Amino acid sequence: MPKFAVITGASSGIGAEFARQxxxxxxxxxxxxxxxxxxxxxxxxxxxVCEIMTADLSKKSECLRLAKTLEDRxxxxxxxxxxxxxxxxxxxxxxxxxxxxxxxxxxxxxxLTKKIGQKLYKxxxxxxxxxxxxxxxxxxxxxxxxxxxxxxYVVNLTSALAQELKEAHSPVYAGCLCPGxxxxxxxxxxxxxxxxxxxxPDEITDVCETLREAGIRLLEVPLNSPDALExxxxxxxxxxxxxxxxxxxxxxxxxxAVREVAEAGGRFIISxxxxxxxxxxxxxxxxxxxxxxxxxxxxFAALRAGADCLKLFPAGALxxxxxKDLKAVIKAPIMAVGGxxxxxxxxxxKVCAGIGVGSALYKPGKPLSAIAEDARRFxxxxx
Length: 383
Hints:
It is a single chain. By secondary structure, the chain is an alpha/beta fold. It folds into 2 domains: 123 residues, NAD(P)-binding Rossmann-like Domain (Rossmann fold, 3-Layer(aba) Sandwich), CATH 3.40.50.720; 200 residues, Aldolase class I (TIM Barrel, Alpha-Beta Barrel), CATH 3.20.20. It contains 15 helices and 14 strands. The strands form 2 sheets. The protein has an 8-stranded parallel β-sheet with strand order 9-8-7-14-13-12-11-10. It has a 6-stranded parallel β-sheet with strand order 3-2-1-4-5-6, with helices on both faces. Strand 4, helix 4 and strand 5 form a beta-alpha-beta unit. It is globular. It starts with a strand and ends with a helix.
């Protein structure tokens, strides 16, 4: 008989990847999330029996409904993955959003850990995996205070349960997965980063969703765009629940601007030069630093200041051969930006960690259908 696993928060990110991996290993699955359309799309990709259950686990009644559904069924593995985060100064984030996060990240996990834990203990076998975060192992999380606190709860709850099961000599396993930033955050499909120069807050959500559906995972909002911080704030609140999209800022010139981006929820900083003060402030706040460079000397200066990766501009004029020569001495990821198109994208990706695309694919007012078509065409050419 095939083993049976239940995954909450299964529609994207880590939950969806669990589904793919377990299906490949022969598990029959129940996928749980709020959006049926995404679950159906994922189910169509899997090779084993897959049930879909739509549920809003921020509600106690929905958590209990899920537990009741499983009451008389054999469960070999239950993955408590549903959760989300938010960014911004604690005193300025929305109280309702904080309370929703507590409901999903703490109350839902607590209810399902208790109910499914009791079930597994009674049936005498099985495993319960709560998905926490490395944030739960750290002492503080400025600009993500509530999220860090919720994940600390998950870590401690699971650790206590695991010890109790051990002392009871139960064969049931309880564990907590504590990932850091995962590949789906910064290694986009085809490693393509989109610069949304000129984007407005009114456009940002629809454009982000269009690009997400096209397979893009890394989006830059240049700070010289209209009300750029509000666009970052809206996108971060919508997508930084997990790993669907990583939102950051470009054209960041000062440490003060870095702080503003962090407060808005941005996760990475792209600067046009190798200003060490900008790089150091970026790293102090726990963001990814990607300064622009042209020469090896500039690259080394950026790396000494703490840069995570480097943006080569204008890459198109220099060519993939220039990057190959640089990599003989520069042991850091390089993103090729400026003049990268469908004709040379694949060649750049042979020598670069990623490529950056801007006005060639996005301009204010461009129809969403055209953005989606161009994005899919570009990522296909880059594979």
